Amino acid sequence: MPRYRAVVAYDGSGFAGFQVQSKRGVERERTVQGELIKAVNQMGKNPQPAIKVVGASRTDTGVHAFGQVIHFDLPFDIPAEGVRKGLNTILPRDILIKEVLLVPDDFHARFSSHSKRYFYRVSTQDYVDPFKRVYTGHFHWQLDAKRIEEALPDLIGEHDFASFAASGNETATTVRTITRADVIVKADEQELVFIFEGNAFLYNQIRIMVGVLLEIGTGRRPVHDIVRLIEVKDREQARYTAPAAGLYLDEIAYN
Amino acid sequence: MPRYRAVVAYDGSGFAGFQVQSKRGVERERTVQGELIKAVNQMGKNPQPAIKVVGASRTDTGVHAFGQVIHFDLPFDIPAEGVRKGLNTILPRDILIKEVLLVPDDFHARFSSHSKRYFYRVSTQDYVDPFKRVYTGHFHWQLDAKRIEEALPDLIGEHDFASFAASGNETATTVRTITRADVIVKADEQELVFIFEGNAFLYNQIRIMVGVLLEIGTGRRPVHDIVRLIEVKDREQARYTAPAAGLYLDEIAYN
């Protein structure tokens, strides 16, 4: 059975996250994975057993993706470009398959990944733009971008990010490596865009990091509070989690 | 009673158009006007008789606005800036009051207007971007932008636009004056943006004009078919109406 890898974009505002949520085997809410499974199985002519779809990242309710990566096996050979077109014809319009490649059997969307890039859009308007309400986090307190820029390098490197993991986190270790942490100030659009790159991230880690950075920006936290938070390894110290709407899974890199 | 004029932006994707649709006095669908009436009456402390909200343009289901204009009378004097903030606090997040001005009693959002500007976004991707699906019209046929640019001046001036009015049009005359008709080609974003300005427009006129221009762009219609369509005054000749999702009421000018 040939294995395919696909790059998937979706508008997260209409989904209860990426992962299928089932209760007693009954799918209860609309998920990205649920729609992908339906489409892939329709394309594979409803085979038994059903084709599985494995995603690289289980994005939460309301989180968007420009470059989620999935893999799946089809019961027969179809050219990759035909798979892309076929799936796009079947899928609802809030999911788009951007690229499909035929890959070796041992490729795994999650375990073969080498790094991930996310960005987070913050709208700093006094009242939120109607066209941004589900595409940005909204934060209307006065921010000093210089303080945020000074704080960002504190995240870079291999650290124990236990203070930045939400309680749903189930990974064995909370040590992660961040290789990029930037902010772009778009003054005209009254937006800040954070960019983070790393080997992997803990549950809600980026939204908690953004929350801390925004509190640093207002002066509520000292500029180098991230150093202290890494030290204390206490999730109670960083409670504000920035809203899901601003988060985008941008790109996943493979070797 | 002081009269206020407000500039209103809304994401049309969650509304059954601007105008309240009632059946036996019961509001049946979510409309922009319905939400504005609720907010203004809440701000006016639920007066009897209820405060009316008059809009400049009855945008259709799915049509967006950056600059809809409304007027309403409040039973007491509140500074205009306080009205703006108060309404934004009450209104749902897909409607935003951008500006409020105190105006003379004879100001009328619809009848005092002098010209209107709309734009229309067309996505020309093969499959539609999930983030554009409710914010652009999608047209994936090959377009020659030069043909469209050559056709656009044919719309300028005072013409009988009967061929460009949908069947719901109820105005006494179908003569209108268009002062601007442009297209911007955004090659990077695979988008065309049409801009139209005129004294007023007929029901669905812009969406029908865009439909004709796109058919000129594909070569299905001759470049100067608009001259013929203005001549024949026959709405059966221009059947394709571009989707509501791409249309934006951008700005309304007053004397």
TrEMBL record, chains A, B:
Name the reaction it catalyses: uridine(38/39/40) in tRNA = pseudouridine(38/39/40) in tRNA
What keyword terms does UniProt attach to this protein? Isomerase, tRNA processing
Q: What is this protein called?
A: tRNA pseudouridine synthase A
Isomerase in keyword set = yes
Task: Extract one GO molecular function annotation from the record.
Answer: tRNA pseudouridine(38-40) synthase activity
Q: List where the protein spans the membrane.
A: none
The subunit field of the Swiss-Prot or TrEMBL record says: Homodimer.
EC class name:
isomerase
Mention one GO biological process in which this protein takes part, according to its record: tRNA pseudouridine synthesis
Task: Please state the Enzyme Commission number of this protein.
Answer: 5.4.99.12
Regarding protein family, the annotation reads: Belongs to the tRNA pseudouridine synthase TruA family.
- Gene name on record? truA
Question: Which residues does the UniProt record annotate as the domain Pseudouridine synthase I TruA alpha/beta?
Answer: 6-111, 154-255
